[in-house]
Amino acid sequence: MTKSILFVGVGGQGIILASKILTEGLIKFGYDVKMSEVHGMAQRGGSVTTQVRFGEKVYSPLIGVGEADVLVAFEKVEAARWISYLKEGGSLVVNDYEIYSMPVLIGQEQYPQNTLDELKSKVENLKIFSAAEVAQDLGNIKTQNIVLLGALIKALGLENLDWEGVIKDNLPEKMQEINIKAIKAGMNI
What we know:
Helix content: 40-55%
CATH class: Alpha Beta
Structural class: alpha/beta
CATH architecture: 3-Layer(aba) Sandwich
Radius of gyration: 16 Å
Shape: globular
Oligomer: single chain
Number of domains: 1
Order of helices and strands: EHEEEHEHHEHHHH
CATH superfamily: Pyruvate-ferredoxin oxidoreductase, PFOR, domain III
Number of strands: 6
Protein backbone atom coordinates (compact mmCIF):
# COMPACT_ATOMS: atom_id res chain seq x y z
CA MET A 1 0.00 0.00 0.00
CA THR A 2 1.35 3.44 -0.96
CA LYS A 3 1.67 6.16 1.69
CA SER A 4 1.55 9.84 0.75
CA ILE A 5 3.29 12.50 2.83
CA LEU A 6 2.92 16.23 2.18
CA PHE A 7 5.45 18.59 3.79
CA VAL A 8 4.41 22.28 3.85
CA GLY A 9 6.04 25.40 5.20
CA VAL A 10 7.98 28.52 4.39
CA GLY A 11 11.27 28.87 2.54
CA GLY A 12 14.30 28.50 4.80
CA GLN A 13 12.71 26.03 7.24
CA GLY A 14 14.61 22.99 5.93
CA ILE A 15 11.59 21.28 4.39
CA ILE A 16 13.47 19.98 1.38
CA LEU A 17 16.30 18.61 3.55
CA ALA A 18 13.82 16.80 5.81
CA SER A 19 12.01 15.26 2.85
CA LYS A 20 15.30 14.23 1.23
CA ILE A 21 16.42 12.49 4.43
CA LEU A 22 13.05 10.72 4.61
CA THR A 23 13.34 9.71 0.95
CA GLU A 24 16.92 8.46 1.31
CA GLY A 25 15.95 6.43 4.38
CA LEU A 26 12.91 4.89 2.74
CA ILE A 27 14.96 3.90 -0.32
CA LYS A 28 17.67 2.43 1.92
CA PHE A 29 15.01 0.33 3.67
CA GLY A 30 13.68 -1.11 0.41
CA TYR A 31 10.72 1.10 -0.45
CA ASP A 32 9.95 2.46 -3.90
CA VAL A 33 9.89 6.24 -3.36
CA LYS A 34 8.94 9.23 -5.47
CA MET A 35 9.50 12.83 -4.37
CA SER A 36 8.45 16.15 -5.85
CA GLU A 37 9.25 19.63 -4.56
CA VAL A 38 7.84 23.07 -5.23
CA HIS A 39 9.91 26.04 -4.15
CA GLY A 40 7.61 28.92 -5.05
CA MET A 41 9.14 32.12 -3.72
CA ALA A 42 11.10 30.11 -1.18
CA GLN A 43 14.01 32.51 -0.86
CA ARG A 44 11.57 35.33 -0.14
CA GLY A 45 9.77 33.52 2.66
CA GLY A 46 7.15 32.03 0.36
CA SER A 47 5.43 28.69 0.51
CA VAL A 48 7.43 25.50 -0.02
CA THR A 49 5.96 22.02 -0.39
CA THR A 50 7.41 18.60 -0.96
CA GLN A 51 5.48 15.47 -1.73
CA VAL A 52 6.84 12.06 -0.83
CA ARG A 53 5.07 8.86 -1.78
CA PHE A 54 6.39 5.43 -0.85
CA GLY A 55 5.36 1.81 -0.94
CA GLU A 56 6.00 -1.41 -2.84
CA LYS A 57 5.55 0.30 -6.22
CA VAL A 58 4.91 4.03 -6.70
CA TYR A 59 4.14 5.50 -10.10
CA SER A 60 3.86 9.23 -9.37
CA PRO A 61 5.12 11.64 -6.71
CA LEU A 62 2.06 13.84 -6.95
CA ILE A 63 -0.53 14.04 -4.17
CA GLY A 64 -3.96 15.37 -5.04
CA VAL A 65 -6.54 17.09 -2.87
CA GLY A 66 -7.76 14.68 -0.19
CA GLU A 67 -4.97 12.15 -0.80
CA ALA A 68 -2.23 12.81 1.79
CA ASP A 69 -1.99 10.20 4.54
CA VAL A 70 0.10 12.62 6.59
CA LEU A 71 0.46 16.39 6.33
CA VAL A 72 3.51 17.80 8.11
CA ALA A 73 3.26 21.56 8.57
CA PHE A 74 6.43 23.42 9.52
CA GLU A 75 4.34 26.59 10.13
CA LYS A 76 0.76 26.64 11.42
CA VAL A 77 -0.84 28.92 8.79
CA GLU A 78 0.66 26.69 6.10
CA ALA A 79 -1.20 23.79 7.76
CA ALA A 80 -4.47 25.67 7.31
CA ARG A 81 -3.57 26.57 3.72
CA TRP A 82 -2.91 22.94 2.71
CA ILE A 83 -5.41 21.07 4.93
CA SER A 84 -7.61 20.17 1.94
CA TYR A 85 -4.85 17.80 0.77
CA LEU A 86 -5.18 15.63 3.90
CA LYS A 87 -7.41 12.62 3.37
CA GLU A 88 -10.24 11.80 5.73
CA GLY A 89 -8.74 9.98 8.70
CA GLY A 90 -5.25 11.23 7.82
CA SER A 91 -2.72 12.51 10.36
CA LEU A 92 -1.67 16.14 10.76
CA VAL A 93 1.61 17.06 12.45
CA VAL A 94 1.84 20.81 13.10
CA ASN A 95 4.74 22.91 14.29
CA ASP A 96 3.20 25.57 16.56
CA TYR A 97 5.35 28.24 14.95
CA GLU A 98 4.66 31.54 13.23
CA ILE A 99 6.51 33.12 10.33
CA TYR A 100 5.15 36.48 9.28
CA SER A 101 4.72 37.27 5.59
CA MET A 102 5.84 40.63 4.22
CA PRO A 103 2.29 42.09 4.24
CA VAL A 104 2.02 41.19 7.94
CA LEU A 105 5.47 42.60 8.70
CA ILE A 106 4.66 45.96 7.10
CA GLY A 107 1.24 46.16 8.74
CA GLN A 108 -0.95 45.68 5.65
CA GLU A 109 -2.42 42.40 6.96
CA GLN A 110 -2.92 40.65 10.30
CA TYR A 111 -1.46 37.23 11.03
CA PRO A 112 -4.43 34.81 11.12
CA GLN A 113 -5.63 34.03 14.64
CA ASN A 114 -7.24 30.82 15.93
CA THR A 115 -5.51 28.69 13.29
CA LEU A 116 -4.92 25.80 15.68
CA ASP A 117 -8.56 25.82 16.85
CA GLU A 118 -9.66 25.70 13.21
CA LEU A 119 -7.37 22.73 12.56
CA LYS A 120 -8.61 20.92 15.68
CA SER A 121 -12.18 21.24 14.41
CA LYS A 122 -11.26 19.65 11.06
CA VAL A 123 -8.79 16.89 11.96
CA GLU A 124 -9.18 14.09 14.47
CA ASN A 125 -5.64 12.69 14.30
CA LEU A 126 -3.67 15.84 15.13
CA LYS A 127 -0.32 16.39 16.85
CA ILE A 128 0.60 20.00 17.66
CA PHE A 129 3.87 20.90 19.35
CA SER A 130 6.63 23.49 19.14
CA ALA A 131 9.48 21.91 17.23
CA ALA A 132 11.29 25.24 17.63
CA GLU A 133 11.25 24.90 21.42
CA VAL A 134 12.49 21.31 21.23
CA ALA A 135 15.25 22.33 18.80
CA GLN A 136 16.19 25.34 20.96
CA ASP A 137 16.44 23.06 24.01
CA LEU A 138 18.79 20.82 22.01
CA GLY A 139 20.97 23.84 21.26
CA ASN A 140 20.16 24.66 17.61
CA ILE A 141 16.80 26.06 16.48
CA LYS A 142 17.68 25.17 12.89
CA THR A 143 17.11 21.49 13.71
CA GLN A 144 13.34 21.94 14.09
CA ASN A 145 12.94 20.40 10.63
CA ILE A 146 14.59 17.20 11.85
CA VAL A 147 12.51 17.25 15.05
CA LEU A 148 9.39 17.35 12.82
CA LEU A 149 10.84 14.56 10.68
CA GLY A 150 11.27 12.46 13.83
CA ALA A 151 7.63 13.05 14.78
CA LEU A 152 6.58 12.02 11.25
CA ILE A 153 8.70 8.86 11.43
CA LYS A 154 6.96 7.97 14.71
CA ALA A 155 3.53 8.68 13.18
CA LEU A 156 4.38 6.34 10.29
CA GLY A 157 5.61 3.58 12.62
CA LEU A 158 9.07 3.64 11.03
CA GLU A 159 11.09 4.53 14.14
CA ASN A 160 12.81 1.11 14.28
CA LEU A 161 14.74 1.77 11.07
CA ASP A 162 18.34 3.07 11.21
CA TRP A 163 17.65 6.82 10.93
CA GLU A 164 20.91 7.64 12.70
CA GLY A 165 22.75 6.00 9.81
CA VAL A 166 20.67 7.94 7.28
CA ILE A 167 21.54 11.22 9.03
CA LYS A 168 25.23 10.27 8.98
CA ASP A 169 25.00 9.44 5.26
CA ASN A 170 23.30 12.71 4.33
CA LEU A 171 24.68 15.47 6.55
CA PRO A 172 28.17 16.89 7.10
CA GLU A 173 29.97 15.42 10.11
CA LYS A 174 29.73 18.65 12.14
CA MET A 175 25.90 18.56 11.86
CA GLN A 176 25.36 14.87 12.55
CA GLU A 177 25.32 14.76 16.36
CA ILE A 178 22.78 17.58 16.84
CA ASN A 179 20.52 16.21 14.10
CA ILE A 180 20.64 12.68 15.55
CA LYS A 181 19.50 14.22 18.85
CA ALA A 182 16.79 16.16 16.97
CA ILE A 183 15.38 13.13 15.14
CA LYS A 184 15.31 11.12 18.39
CA ALA A 185 13.60 14.01 20.22
CA GLY A 186 10.97 14.15 17.47
CA MET A 187 10.35 10.43 17.72
CA ASN A 188 9.81 10.79 21.48
CA ILE A 189 7.14 13.49 21.19
